[in-house]
Amino acid sequence: MSLQFEIGQYNTLMEALSTVTKSMTDMMKSLAQRAS
User: Fold this and answer.
1) Greatest Cα pair distance in the chain
2) DSSP state, residue 33
3) I need a labelling partner for 13 at 20 to 30 A (CA). Which of 3, 6, 7, 29 fits?
4) Full 3-state SS string of 3-31
């Protein structure tokens, strides 16, 4: 029970992290395009 909860928490955290990383990457790309 608690192990599955831990895994669920971990998966949620990883999804959130990848979403944040992706949006930051997209932001960097658009900033770079605007600068050049």
Assistant:
1) 53
2) H
3) 29
4) HHHHHHHHHHHHHHHHHHHHHHHHHHHHH
Angstrom distance (rounded) from CA 18 to CA 24: 10
Residue 15 token pair? 């999804």
State both tokens at 34.
Answer: 């605007």
CA atoms of 11 and 33, how far apart (whole Å): 33
How far is 14 from 20, CA to CA, in rounded Å?
Answer: 10
Residue type at position 10: Y
Q: Note the pLDDT tens digit of each residue in 21-31.
A: 999 999 999 99
